[in-house]
Amino acid sequence: MLTLKQIYEDKAAIVAGLEKKHFAGAAEAIDQVIALDQERKAAQQQKDAAAAEMNQISKSIGALMAKGDKAAAEEAKAKTGALKDNIKQYDQAMADAEEKQRLLLLTIPNVPYDIVPQGRSAEDNLAVKMGGWDIKHELVGNTKAFDADGAAVALKDWKDEWNPQPAFAKLPHWELAKKYNLIDFDLGVKISGAGFPVYIGQGARLQRALINFFLAEATKAGYTEIMPPTVVNAASGYGTGQLPDKEGQMYHCEVDDLYLIPTAEVPVTNLYRDEIIDEDQLPIKNCAYTECFRREAGSYGKDVRGLNRLHEFSKIEIVRIDTPAHSDASHREMLTHVEGLLQKLELPYRILRLCGGDMSFTAAICYDFEVYSEAQHRWLEVSSTSNFDTYQANRLKCRYRSKEDKKVQIAHTLNGSALALPRIVAALLENNQCEEGIRIPKALQPYFGAEMIR
Questions:
Q1: Is the dihedral of CA 351, 289, 309, 266 positive or negative?
Q2: Helices 26-67, 70-106: inter-axial angle, 10-degree rounding
Q3: d(CA 322, CA 330)
Q4: Rounded to an integer, what distance in angstroms lies between the CA atom of residue 90 and that of residue 286?
Q5: In a 3-state reduction of DSSP, which class is residue 127?
Q6: Going by C-beta distance under 8 Å and a sequence separation of 6 or more, which residues neighbour residue 117?
Q7: Angle between helices 421-431 and 202-220 (to 10 degrees)
Q8: Distance between CA 441 and CA 424 in Å, rounded?
Q9: What angle do CA 201, 205, 206 make, to 5 degrees?
Q10: Which residues contact 268 (CB under 8 A, 6 or more apart)?
């Protein structure tokens, strides 16, 4: 949630940032926030004036009684009574203005960093790096090598020439799943509905191998493993920004007013809601494996077939709490960690810096990782790794105490998928199929217990 300090210090930049995210009525919303703050301040001034007058009158009552001027004393008491009533009204006016302002701020997204490109949709995202296997590519108008700190080209201006030319026609993962009895999509429909696959035998073992591999790699990188609940209360949803923005996309248990989590980001980040952390403890680095639940309302068609888009899926999340001075370095470390996982899985990948129109409600900057699907001939998103600046932390009241001046300040929060399993599984099955079966990447073999799926 944006702070009043941010809004007052640079209103024009806030409005411009919201417009970069294509938030409709940005200027009007910010003006309304300011107007409500002025309304609260006016009520506060009236309350303070009434309180001062009431104190002054109260002091005179004793002197009037001592003089025997009961009529004047009673009149003074009546005035203090009226002033008390006025103060209650001013308190209510302040509370109303604050609540309206809070609710309005909850609907206003985070402001993107300057480095975030302009754009409305995924085609305006910038490709900043590619890697994995022998990828052939061409950057239209820019043939130089590039990375996260170098040249970046918008996807709409970039011709992708990945063409592995396999020795045989590669099957999509949903056909491979049936051929090797790995995943049964029809059974999932039978017991739950579309988007809830059943993993069987080697398919279940592959899931477990990936979960253990990702958790082991996160532990090596210094992350503390957390096993959180997979249902959260509304306060947790509001804390990390899923509510009210994504309320329709979350499964809601109405009787208990609990929500199934869309990502472990929600419970893990909320561990630090209403907390003041000593700076010496930062950065806090946590990871968690959970099942994730997303309604994905309106999702249908060929692009959501098989594992491409599910209502329930497994994911390992990495979460950091950090200081403003170090959060950019934390974000880079997280990007390096996610990239390392894809390299160890030997998957072709690319890293995108998202444009303003394609970013999440809460992110200040976000990089997506995509892996290439040889059978589907398309890129599949497997991770979003974001820095939220103070936006989530302000909603959460997650703060830290500076070791230098002992002042309490708002922390920064960051998170990323490391990694989401469904599309990783899809790419592994499709890209590694051969005449003998499906090859398991070397780094994953100790967790899977075999070199091949046959």
A1: negative
A2: 160
A3: 8
A4: 45
A5: strand
A6: 124, 125, 126, 152, 154, 353, 355, 356
A7: 120
A8: 12
A9: 115
A10: 226, 228, 286, 288, 317, 319, 415
Count of C-beta atoms within a 10 Å radius of residue 234: 15
* 201: DSSP letter: T
What is the CA angle 215-220-226, rounded to 5? 45
pLDDT at 168 over 90: no
The CA distances from residue 118 to 17, 101, 228, 335, in Å, are 10, 28, 37, 22
pLDDT, tens digit (0-9, with 9 covering 90-100), for 171-183: 999 999 999 999 9
Question: How far is 298 from 130, CA to CA, in rounded Å?
Answer: 31
pLDDT score at 145: 41
Question: Quick check: 196 and 292 in contact, CB under 8 A?
Answer: no
Does residue 27 contact residue 416 with C-beta atoms inside 8 Å? no
Structure tokens at 201: 């035998």
Residues 416, 335: Cα–Cα separation, whole Å: 8
- Provide CB contacts within 8 A for 450, sequence distance 6+: 440
Helical packing angle, 26-67 and 11-20, nearest 10° = 140
On whether the CB atoms of residues 351 and 339 are closer than 8 A, the answer is: yes
The rounded distance, in Å, linking the Cα atoms of 130 and 147 is: 8
Q: Give per-residue pLDDT as tens, 219-273.
A: 999 999 999 999 999 999 999 999 998 888 999 999 999 999 999 999 999 999 9
The CA distance from 450 to 437, in Å, is 12
Query: Is the CB of residue 306 less than 8 Å from the CB of residue 203?
Result: no
pLDDT of 45 higher than 60: yes
d(CA 303, CA 138): 25
Find where tokens 């509370």 sit: 95
Q: Which residue do the tokens 């997280």 mark? A: 334
CA-to-CA dists, residue 227 to 1, 106, 435, angstroms: 27, 28, 40
Strand order of the β-sheet with 452-453 is 433-434, 437-439, 452-453
DSSP 3-state of 137: coil
Calpha distance 131→315 (Å, rounded): 22
Residues 65-84 have a mean pLDDT of: 83
Q: Side chain identity at 371, as an amino acid letter?
A: V
With cut-offs at 50, 70 and 90, classify the pLDDT of residue 55: confident
Q: Tokens for 378?
A: 């398309």
> Both tokens of residue 365?
């900057």
Q: How far is CA 2 from the centre of its chain?
A: 15
Taking the chain, what is the end-to-end CA distance rounded to the nearest angstrom? 51
